[in-house]
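debug: dumping io for the single-chain case to check the tokenizer round-trip. Nothing else runs in this session.
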Amino acid sequence: HSLFQTSSFEGLFNMADLMALPLLPVGRELSRQLGSPLASLLFWLLSHPRVAVVWRHKLKVLASVLVSRAALQRLRPLLRPTTQPALAPAAAAAEERAAAAAAAPDAVEDAGTKEPLVATSATAVLQPAVTPALPTAVEIITGDKRWQSLLGWEVAGSAAISVVTFKLFTQRIYALAATVEMLTSRKSEWQKVAWQYPLFCMVSAVLGQSLDYLRAVVTIKWRRNVTRRLHDLYFSNMSYYRLMSQGQELSVLDPDIRICTDVTAMVDLYSHLTFSMVQASVLAFTFSFWNLKVALGPPLFFIAGLTLIVKSIPAEMVPATMRLAESDGIYVQMLTRVQLHAERIFALHGVDYEFGLLRRHIDRIKEFSRRVQYTSFAKTVVECAFFYPQETPGFMELAGHTVAAVLSLGDVPSEALHGGLSLDPLAPQAWTPWHVGGQVARLHSWFNMCRPWGLFTDIFVKIHIQDGNTLRVQELYAKLLALKQTTLIDADVFSDAGPVISFDRVTIETPTKQTLLKQLTFELREGQTLLVCGHNGVGKSSIIRCLCALWPIPEGRISRPGGAVQAEEDLHLHDELYYLPQKPCNVLGSLSDQLTYPTQVEGGLPEAELRRWLRYVDLEHLADRAIGADAVSRLPGGDGADIDWEILLSLGEQQALSIGRLLYHRPRFAILDECTSAVGKGLERRLFEMTKELGIACLTIAHRPVLRDHHERILQLSGASADGGCGWHLSDLPQKEGPSRRYRVMDKEEVRRILDARLEAERTASRGDGSALAAFHSEQELVARRSTGFVARHALAAGAASADVLVRCRWPSRLARFLALLRLALERPEERRATAGRVAVMAALLVVHARLVWMQWRGQTGLMLASMCGNRLRVFCEFASNFLMVGVAHGVAQTFRLTSWSLHQHLWEGLTRAIQKRAMQDGAFFKVTMPSDPAIPAIENPLQRMSDIKAFFNIMEDQVNKVTLPLSTALMLMPTMLRGLGFLSPALLTFNYVSFWLCQFVAPDFTALREREAVLDDRFKFLHTRLRAIAEPVAFSGGGRAERCIIEPRFEAVLQHAERSRMKEAAYNTVTVFFTDYLYLPIWLQRMLSRQYALINTPHHPAGISPNLLASNLLFDRSIQYPQVAVQRLVLFSPHWERMDSHCQRCLEVVVAFEAASSAAAAAAASAAAGAALRARGGAVGASATNGIVVQGLDVVTQSGRCLVRDLSFDVTPGAPLLVTGPNASGKSLFGSILMGLWAPAGKANAISLPGDAAGLPPPSTIAAAPQRIYIPLGPLHNQLSYPEVISAAALAPPFRLLAQGSPAAAAGGCTERLRAHFAGLGAVEVSELVAQASSVQKLFIAWADFPSAEALLKSIARPEAWVVDGTSFKVVFGESAAEMETMKEHKASVLPNLPQMMAVLRAVGIEHVVSREPEGWLAERIWEDTLSGGEQQRLCLARVFYRRPTFGLLDECTSMVAADAEEDLYRRLIHDWGVTPIALTQRLFLPELFGRELALGARNADGWELTTC
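debug: decoded output
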């Protein structure tokens, strides 16, 4: 019989043939399925006599084809008709540049647009820029110690373990082959051989996990080395600040993300690469002594695979991968930014705006992910076909079977061949088990060699082709090295001339080369004082930036203590020069660390000394403040070690604590940059008097003229365009007591005596009875009496259920929590329909994939059968057909993975949208950070947990791909397995599963480990992001070293936890791998059951076993394999299930907290509405309630239960401004938070009534806030005023029309022609004239211009100069038709900026120059916190109130950096010109002629407040 005929089993057999047939029906069915049908067809074609001639002379035919191909290549130039003329040099160069531009996609187009992505403050992406040469990843990992660091004892140990592993591999191969050889043997020797395999597997599992543990140790070691190397560069030379201020070439927008996230991914990839290379090299070397052919095969095979992969990579995939990594990092940054500014965002009603930005970033991530997935489809098919043979048989498995079959062809005895060509597959042979055993040995040798080479090649591809993380780290490292080599302080500019600060003809320029001051010259000696004044933007803070060497000095010389040495390099310089910024730099740590910053006292200051320094600045009560685990939202620190004082302290308390720092350090020179803008007059006066008595020279930047009394000279700045082009004027100030100079007091006891005397004298003078301490304690006693009930309630609330307890009570099981998350992701009907469609497609693909896998197995078994029969032609046919099916099967598998990715991306988007919706509702994302209601559980970093959603679905997608593909094949083969083994089949699978559950007794608590790892990692990331936000004040203070001392212990905690976790996981994985990994105990059990089947299925024949029968037994053996693999994937899914549950837990905690916050807000709103209705019916509310603010019975209570104000009642009517004053910690900002709906009001009968307030949050038309802590949103300049309204030109529909309105005189003199010429130059396609009736008195001249797009329309009028035509100013608005513009109403105000009104607002607050100096005008996008000065930022925040024109404006110390005369002018304009009634929160009484009443908080009475007339 031929092999083709035996595969069909048609016709009758003689008795001998019947004795060679399988005994079981399932065996007969399998014997009919040997070989691929496609191979049978190909074999039939090649067996045709005419085709057989070609096959017999195949080598000659191949040689003829190669020779003909070479001849055609030589003749091709001669066959061309003509040659193109050579290009001119210029044209050739132009053509080369065009080809290079076309070949290198430098700008990946954004989704739905034709414009390349640009780097903005909101969306930062890669742009081509001139950057320093990139170092290699090996240089970054190893540093100076190249190979010594790379080849440590861990790598040497892995090589030694690999040698031992090789010996075990060979023993396992021999044992496994022997079990196959004795598969049908009725001898007892098989038992001795069979029990060797599990013993070898046990030792191999220990050694294999030892290798994995060594790799984890190396990964942690390299991460520590790389991070510290980056920290060395990042924290030296003020690089953390200079990365944001040195221009595009050296700028990095996300160094925190690269250090915290990309470094981890990079070292993990390179540790995999190193260890796989070591194992592959050791195994190749040792195998070469055993079998040279097998040893050389895998490297050649994977080189060929790598070549195919490289050729299948599209050019656009690499930049898309880079953009995806960049977008992921920026998305995490934006989550942190929103969380940091949560209070201001909620107060400004900017929730929709900010979450809209987040949603756009999610869309951007989806788009780049789609590009990566679809463009890499072919590459992924090839990569999976070469490297991942378990889920779908691939080229590696096909190559192993082919190599084993070809090498085994020579083992067939020549005398057994039938007709000299091949033997009869149904003829029993005695040597067939030995032949199959040899094939199995060669096959497993191939697999063992291919595993490390496959891992090495896979990691190599990821690193050198699509690894964006490594490139991002390389860019950061290169730019940090460039900054290190760039001279920060020029020794020719800076010098040390002793105890003096001097500027000698210094020109000050911004990094954008804008000149602020010229030839600046002044001198400040020890004991002297200098006041620097000037309006916003003239360069006051720029002088300090130049003094601290943050900006380059183009001209002049500066003398200062230390000269060219930075304070970060020499901590003793803090005793010479100390800086106090307007926005204090709050250190993360204890109260002692906060006071001694940037130095640190080991163990902290003694309590008595700490209280003394705090007493000097009226902050002794901070030492008694109870700090609980829920007191700090972002970094809880119950032990007082990790306290974020920026949250706990008001701005006034932070500034007071900064003054305490100054007194503690007692420098020779103090730089005071608006450092008293939020403190009271008493503390401000005390600061200057104490510095004078201690001999501290002060260089003060301020606006208020009252500070002139404390200074000897004044440096008045007016800008470079004034004062003869210099922009400054230095003059002496009159002294009441005459100029005095004192040298610095150094003796500590003398300092203490001076400060104590000054404090006691001040308190004695203020009270008259000399009992200052008694007065302080009396105030605390009053607060304690008011807080009695609230403290008890707070203690009761501290024991309330936390978010994790609530989640476990509501969803007690993991499955319930998983389903709860899926229900959230599928809230909308369209999401459920789309999900159902994708699931149906995936199910169909699974069925097709299972059929294709079975066809591949039939072909591989047919390959072995052809080898046993010695049929070379059939070997070739089976190889060719399997080669084709591998590509088809992997194409189907990759289509399944692509559909799975689409499904999980859809679920990620849906769940993110659902959680964001709950976070936005009633400002829940802010309220859960510092809950004012005991029913709201506190959550640390709630928005940062949004990244857990993506991690959850990444794990889910990975497990769906790994489990469902083999599971579908296992379900298809389960009937075959049951028919062949009976009850042994479920017994085997049950044993595998039960053995895994027995392994759980040694399993660590993965949920707790992952949760702890996530918390530690989040803290490390947050500290880096926080440093980026406060980089400038840290650089001013020389606090880089202090910040590093804060960050690195948290980083070390992350690594130590990782080391402990990896050790526990290694012990657990050793047991689970032995019991569940298919190549260990499961394959041994499979061979034992296959033997049992063979004993039942194989008839006894004295001549031996036929190849057909043995091949059918092997095919049944493969039918056992995939159920085994499926059970293995199911049992290995359990730890991933725990990881998924930990992410579910964290996400559901946020959901529970957000829902609790929304419920509390709804209950408070309902209670307030009911109380208001009841009072209205009883007539308790006065007439002012209809259009004013009424507060009745309000208690102002802190989170810790301290009642600062009790039974507060007042009203505010439009046109009657209210001034709220009080010292630090008196409750001003907390009262403002209650008024804005940020904090829950307290009091049994409290009532707050505002016009239009229906849901607990006053509308922006009623009251708008200008908060004390400035918030500048991301986006273009016009969005800074319209915030939080989302203004988008995309909402404008054609025609894109602009209307310009002028006076009637504008129509004279051919104004239409001038307008046409003007707007045509700006991109208009048509300009026409229209005269419309604007009023009953006069007619206005109106012309309209049409533009091709909304972007072109906005760009045409982005600069104010575009509104002026030949000296005639026009009012420009947007419109569509003349009928709509007869009244000049801006009907698209909701989607387009009202630029004329915006310009009027900027003119009113005095910063119209901001628009003029930007080349893009209103469309300019900058990081405005770094672009604008502090005063300009405050004016911009106040301009929002002007733009909205609400009834009331809550102004919380919002003009502290504005000059006094300008401050008064702003308030007058706000009240008289814009009709806004301000409620001003301030430390001091000012402008009594504008404010009729004063609400004084912190009064020494039972209620803590009093209302008086100014």
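debug: round-trip ok. The chain is about 55% helix and 10% strand.
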